Amino acid sequence: MLTLYWYWSPNPQKVRLAIEELKLEYSLVTVDLARGGQHAELVGELNPNRKVPVLTWGPYTLWESNAILLYLGERTHKLWPGEAEGKGRAAKWMYFESCHLSAPVGRLWLEGYVKRLMNRPADTLALEQAQKDGARYLSVLDGHLSRSTWMLGDEFSLVDCCYGPLLDAFDLAGEYVAAYPAIRAYVQKMRARPAWRACEFRS
User: Fold this and answer.
1) With bands split at pLDDT 50, 70 and 90, how would you rate the model's confidence at 37?
2) Ramachandran angles phi, psi of 62, nearest 5°
3) Which CATH number fits domain 2-76: 3.40.50.10540, 3.10.350.10, 3.40.30.10, 3.30.830.10?
4) CATH number of the 84-198 domain
5) What is the largest CA-CA distance in the chain?
6) How confident is the model over 45-94, as pLDDT tens digits?
7) Cα separation values, 71 from 48, 76, 165, 176, Å
């Protein structure tokens, strides 16, 4: 049985979106990070970093969202390239997301959206730094998406499950996405997918 430990934030959303797109049966365990759920003994046993997502499939346990996406692709052979070159492109864009986009976009989402929900003031210096850190890489991504329907071409793939939740968070953070029209259009396409309804952010 496949079980996903998750919460309403971009990295766990990636995995739930992938499972929904793959139409796999699964059970869901919500770890309430807002109330310190990551400190529960079970979470520490599953992931020494005390973070979600964590996926268990029978006796197998895996953490790190992009590693889980890769595993699901290799295990199911769905929404994932079959040839070495396609797998190389998939890995390239997933590394690009984790190395260059996850941190600055995550900071924009936290300061520009999450703190607003909590009625807490944003750290303006952190927002400015996140914009600066992410601008170069967001421009690269925007250029790519202006020429490609989905991340790997005309067909939706698990790489889109990697990017959809992060770019949705970027859009929620404020007006920053207006500078990247292809990213904005991509987010709208993602939100229109039936599987998205299961994992879209809920305040």
Assistant:
1) low
2) -145, 135
3) 3.40.30.10
4) 1.20.1050.10
5) 49
6) 888 889 999 999 999 999 999 999 999 999 999 999 999 999 999 999 99
7) 20, 8, 19, 33
